[in-house]
Specification:
The complex is a heterodimer of chains A (137) and B (205). Chain A is 17% helix and 39% strand. By secondary structure, chain A is α+β, with helices and mostly antiparallel strands. Chain A has a single domain, classed as Immunoglobulin-like, CATH 2.60.40. In chain A, strands 1, 4, 5, 6 and 8 form a five-stranded mixed β-sheet that branches. In chain A, strand 2 and strand 3 form a beta hairpin. Chain B has a five-stranded mixed β-sheet with strand order 2-1-3-4-5, with helices on one face. The termini of chain B are far apart. Classes of the chains: A alpha+beta (137), B alpha/beta (205). Chains A and B meet through loops of A and helix 2 and helix 3 of B.
Amino acid sequence: MQIRTGVLATAALMLLGCQTQPQQPEYPQLQIGPRAQSYLHIEAVQEGYASSNLLRAGVRLYNRSSQQQTLRYRFSWFDGNGFELKGLAGRWEQQPLRPNEPVMIDRVAPSPKAVSYRIQLFDPRTPVTTPTQGIDG
Amino acid sequence: MSTSNTLIKALALTAAVGFAAGCTPQTQLLTPGTPDAPVTMGLSGSDFAQAASDAVQSMLTSGAVDRNDGKKNIMVVSTVLNDTMQRIDTDQLVKKIRVDLLRSGKVLTTTAIGLNGAEDKMTQAYSELSQSRKVDRSTVVRQRLAAPNMSLSGKIIQRNNRVDGNKQLVEYYFQLTLTDLSNGLAIWEGETPIQKLGSAKGTSW
């Protein structure tokens, strides 16, 4: 009887262990395109404040491929209600990436109303599929 | 005979017009920020946006527009000189900076004071309303214009250089200065260089 209970408990534990947990992305603020994913290595996402009350965000990354790449990126800023805040800090921009050279890209939010942000990292060769991928902020 | 000749001529003319219309490139509406946007040797809207964005980001991160008394800075736009070979309106740069600084909540721009008079002449015209008999004077508010405490000035420079005989390097420099008007000192300075390499046959003006 005790052996049967032990076997059942072990089986239950094993089943629980095999269950797939919804995996949280390491950097939920980042949206990386499929092509850029193949050569980008993200070292850190940093955030703080500039000019006392303006949200500031940045990403430290490098190109782990052996060829020079061009990164197309954009910072989107959102207010407390989730509405996007317009401004020059929300433009699509480009950054050349030499192999294995660390690069820090950071921007200051356009308004003190900004409470959250999203950083989109794409390769320019990625076809524009989403409405936000080609629209300037 | 003459009727058939006229008919042939009319058909030929219609066909020619049709061909010509077919060969005309279609006008496209470009979405700002698209990766395949055309690049020109001259200054384009995206160059001004780049320079303005760099300037505003630099001003905000430097702390030059911070105040600890809870008040906002009042900026006046001084001279932004166009020292390029192109006929450009420097307001393309200045307006973008003004809009972004206003959004930041740190800086307001006066439109009542300027080197060439008020940008918005209505401020002056409004002050004359109290003299008018047509206006209900009880609705006229007494004006107290805010004096600026900082000034934005700058210059856009262009340099053209031949590279390898058939190529041309065009360099643009957007130089801007923010001056504290209480003491005349530059509290922020920035320069955004933009370089373009293209055919030497092309012109950049």
